[in-house]
Amino acid sequence: MTLELNEVLLEGASRTVSMIAESRQLVCLTGGRAEERTRLLRAVMGFVPLTGGVLSIDGTPLNAKSAPTLRRCMAYAPHRLDDVGHFPTYEAPSVQSVFTLKANQQVSISNGILSEEVKRTGCTGKPAQLLAVAALLQRPILLCDEPPAESAPYLQSLARQGLLVLTASASQTLRAAADVVVEL
């Protein structure tokens, strides 16, 4: 898979972003504020409109019509589960409730498999669970919003297995582990 951002501009951003990322690469979006990095990840998923430029996946431009189809090739590990916006309650849902979302209902993952994948992430707690869930969805593009620095070797291994891993992070560890670093 190839993800291309060509002079992409988001509302409120001070500069455009251009990059090309391919399968088997770990890419780190860094610089700027955390909110800007998160908004760019959400734009890649088609949830934040572009004010300029073109974002495409395998040559297909992302727009309102193509976004739902293109999202099927992506998995998203948010910084916190309540950031996703799919849950109308004030209480953060359980990690298992992620599998009740329409896009994830075909995925059958046992607690044992999830537990083993959480161990592989190299980190602990909810961030490890969210990262493991996203990886277990087995989508060709993995988007990670502010993953723990300890997960860098895990993210590298996922990229080496063929995924395009796009992280948004200010972590020096993740920057050093990345094949491509994009300054915002």
The largest sheet is:
5 strands, parallel
Element order: H for helix, E for strand:
EEEHEEHEHHEHEHE
Going across the biggest sheet, name each strand in turn: 6-7-8-3-9
Are there runs of 5+ residues with pLDDT below 50, and where?
A: 83-93
Q: What features would you describe in this structure?
A:
This protein has 184 residues and is of the alpha/beta class. Helices cover 29% and strands 26% of the residues. The protein contains 6 helices and 9 strands. A 5-stranded parallel β-sheet has the order 6-7-8-3-9. Strands 2-1-4-5 form a 4-stranded antiparallel β-sheet, with helices on one face. The longest helix has 12 residues, at 125-136. The two termini are 23 Å apart. The relative contact order is 0.23.
Spell out the key features of this protein.
184 residues; five-stranded parallel beta sheet; 9 strands
Short description:
Helices cover 29% and strands 26% of the residues.
Topology:
Layout lengths: L1 E9 L6 E6 L3 E5 L3 H11 L5 E8 L2 E2 L5 H5 L2 E4 L33 H10 L4 H12 L4 E5 L6 H9 L3 E5 L3 H6 L2 E4 L1
Parallel strand pairs: 3-8, 3-9, 6-7, 7-8
Antiparallel strand pairs: 1-2, 1-4, 4-5
